[in-house]
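Chapter review: from sequence to fold.
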Amino acid sequence: MILVTGGAGFIGANFVLDWLQTHDEPLINLDKMTYAGNHDNLVTLTGDERHTLVVGDIGDSVLVSDLLHRYRPRAIINFAAESHVDRSIHGPGDFIDTNVVGTFRLLEATRQYWTSLSPGERSSFRFLHVSTDEVYGSLNADDPAFTETTPYTPNSPYSASKAASDHLVRAWHHTYALPVLTTNCSNNYGPYQFPEKLIPLMLHHALTDKPLPIYGDGQNIRDWLYVGDHASGIRRVLEAGRVGETYNIGGNNERSNLQVVHALCDLLDRLQPHPEGSYRRLIRFVTDRPGHDRRYAIDATKIRTELGWTPQHHFESGLEQTLRWYLSHSDWIARVTSGAYRQWLETHYTEENTPCARD
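The token string follows.
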């Protein structure tokens, strides 16, 4: 059995679904079920005895310890995190509480559990921490891509909180010998992504005939990783990664925000044309956000050469698969964009600073 934290959010839920499609090994899914944690993401698992959902916080040491000693997992995969840069700018406290304090408390509960195991169980146990390429900071156009040895230079409250959590994981390995693994991924996209991120937000706006606002000049570049590829990469690291090591997981798909929105509009023009013409007519450029990193790029040589993993999706095929999923799940979009989602947009964005293409 494995324990997955944050397994009702976008990446976590996709990993849980992928795991149960490729393994019979059951899992415990611990999720706080905040705005991004969604029961609908896991509805296809209803009645599946291999999946147990527990609503709770990784910072609840008593709960985590109870789960560990009751279910005795052989591994923990930690997805639980606040993960949106704009939200971190408006409210950094939640990011410190979850990403730093929560990770610390999860590590401590794990360490206590791990020391209680038999020698054989201890040697096979793994704690896999899922992080982001944003901890490495920003690249210029001609800079080499991030490697696992790139110095950390986080530039937002979100990336700083994730950098802190990465350092805690590393320290618990070097100080206490806890068998950890860390992965740093590039921008994910795919089904079940909460519509505050670039692709689902632009799609939601396009389908409701709203402006598609893009920060600055739209030339901020990200490497795009299909979430199913990310799930397979994590499975591979858990299976064969070297204890104490970090593995970058990238999609080999660098695109500017404007290129992504153009590709989305062009694909929508084909899949669901609008009577008034191309969806590109809705694109608007707005004031950039504070401290917006210019470029991220992942060098995934290490995971490819050591573990034999490479992404299976090109950006164009992954984007079409993603859009087709959203177009066939309009009920999911309607539920997650009601109530609290609209209230958040109204609270944090005025007409002069419309919610924008974010990463």
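Two observations follow directly from the output. Residues 2-191+223-253+292-314 form a domain with the Rossmann fold fold (CATH 3.40.50.720). The first strand starts at residue 2 and ends at 5.
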